[in-house]
Prior knowledge:
- By secondary structure, this protein is an alpha/beta fold.
- The protein has two domains: 3-202 and 297-305, Spore Coat Polysaccharide Biosynthesis Protein SpsA, Chain A (Alpha-Beta Complex); 223-293.
- The protein has ten helices and eight strands.
- It has an eight-stranded mixed β-sheet, sandwiched between helices.
- The longest helix is centred in the C-terminal third of the chain and has 34 residues, at 260-293.
- The protein is elongated.
- The two termini are 28 Å apart.
- 29% of the residues are buried.
Amino acid sequence: MKEKKLISLIVYLYNNEDSILGFLELIIQQTEELFEQFEIIIVNDASTDASVQKIKTADFLKPYQVSIIQMSFHQGVELSMNAGLDLSTGDFVYEFDTVIIDFDKILIEQSYRKILEGYDIVSVSPTASEKMTSKFFYKTYNYFSKSDYKLRTDRFRILSRRAINRAFSISVKIPYRKAMYINSGLKVATIEFKKNNLQRNTTEKSYLRNKTAIDTLIIYTNLAFSISVYISLILLFCTLSIIIYTMFIYFGKNKPIEGWTTIMLLLSGGFSGLFLLTAIIIKYLSLILEIVFKKKSYIQENIEKI
């Protein structure tokens, strides 16, 4: 018997004309076997290829409830998926941040069965990250993270409606959904799989990924605080060194211009550390201001039903 829960499938789309139809066919085939009713929400992040045209003309999509959110301009995975979450109505929501197909479709059902065991967030992750930058980011995040759960690369995840409501109750704007979910206080589980191919796809632009990574490390970890502590200790060491140097010069035989060396070292070391600490504080304040007061985090052009 099929499950009676309403399911939402949110798919991020950006220049995936070669793989989007195959991806949709795979997830729909598995979802249809498992659920009586489901909706498909495709978030088009201002694709410049024929991805949307292929979706609109695909015959196998016509029997289903498919919505396409057209973002006004390229805004990245996080803001685009937030738009999809706002439109979703399902009791459970699948998030597909990428259309890479390197997993067995049975994992869609397994992740649903897992969430019924009492979890609110279930991620499906490959056994290893394929990018060095991703490995570095996740290791840095997990080392400085305040959460007991570890962040890692995943292919998709399924969320309960409670998890989504909890995330948006914590913050109006969600800078990085994965970090918000594991810091929500709800139960999280991970299902691992071994990739069956090395397929890659075009994703959001690199500058958006870098911005998301920096904001995430500042908001959800102690990295910035640790850096400020290290800088303070270095400045303290420099100050003590200057005191020792000053005493050495004072009791030495060779007398330079009195006070010049000490003042220059003190000013250069003190102001360099002050400027760096100020930059960290300003970054914190700008993020707090944006999260607290910015009510609409994304801009969409329209929503189409096909």
